[in-house]
């Protein structure tokens, strides 16, 4: 398994872990007057994601520095481009759907929450697609 | 009938004292996984990488890669 594939697995796992914790508090976040605890939970989730990413990638680097320092080759660049393109479509569609919730009575905070949800789904699609391409060869 | 790019990388590596995929990858400047994907026909390399692979073996591009129908390539492989 190449460094980029391991990195994609780490990021996908971190996103899934943190986003599940974050969106479990969805109903509280949709409250027009969020409590400080809710905001602290959101900040803690972002902090946890950054911590997982940094520590896991550091461990990965220390285990095989040569592999980690190797620049992306053309196949890896193509995989990243294809995955990012697909994720962009998901994000655009998700954002439009989030805006449409205004017609169903959603307030500004709720729309922001749905846009964030669309972004997280798009990132999950991004890294899952990369892993699929890496596993298949291309 | 489908057309496909086939290659003789596995054979060429074998002929050069069982050169490993990692050794070839280091010479070409790609990852071992990319060499494996090219060798298995899952990924078609750019012209530049194809030339670098041929240069790593010291042969021409035609000696490494072939383009044609799958049937033609199978027949060619049997003839060798």
In words, what does this structure look like?
The complex is a heterodimer of chains A (138) and B (80). By secondary structure, chain A is mainly α. Chain A has helices spanning 3-23, 26-29, 36-63, 65-69, 74-100, 108-136. Chain A is flat, with a radius of gyration of 17 Å. Chain B is α+β, with helices and mostly antiparallel strands. Chain B is 60% helix and 12% strand. Chain B has 6 helices and 2 strands. A two-stranded antiparallel sheet of chain B has the order 1-2. Chain B is globular. The mean pLDDT of chain B is 86.
Please render the helix and strand layout as text.
The complex is a heterodimer of chains A (138) and B (80).
Chain A: H1 3-23, H2 26-29, H3 36-63, H4 65-69, H5 74-100, H6 108-136
Chain B: E1 3-7, H1 9-15, H2 21-28, H3 32-39, H4 47-57, H5 61-64, E2 65-69, H6 70-79
Antiparallel strand pairs in B: 1-2
Helix pairs in contact in B: 2-3
Structural class category of chain A: mainly alpha
Major sheet attributes of chain B: 2 strands, antiparallel
Q: Give the class of chain B from helix and strand content and strand pairing.
A: alpha+beta
Give the end-to-end Cα distance of chain B, rounded to a whole number of Å: 22 Å
Helix fraction bin of chain B:
55-70%
Global mean pLDDT of chain B: 86
Beta-strand segment tally of chain B: 2
Shape descriptor of chain A reads: flat
Approximate shape of chain B: globular
Q: What radius of gyration of chain B results from the CA coordinates?
A: 12 Å
What number is the mean pLDDT of chain A?
A: 90
Number of helices of chain B: 6
Strand residue content of chain B: 5-15%
User: Which stretches of chain A are poorly predicted, pLDDT < 50 over at least 5 residues?
Assistant: none
- Gap between N and C termini of chain A, in Å? 14 Å
User: Mind describing the biggest β-sheet of chain A?
Assistant: none
The percent range for strand residues of chain A is: under 5%
SSE order of chain A, one letter for each helix or strand: HHHHHH
Residue share in helix of chain A: over 70%
Order of helices and strands of chain B: EHHHHHEH
Largest interface: A-B, 12 and 14 residues
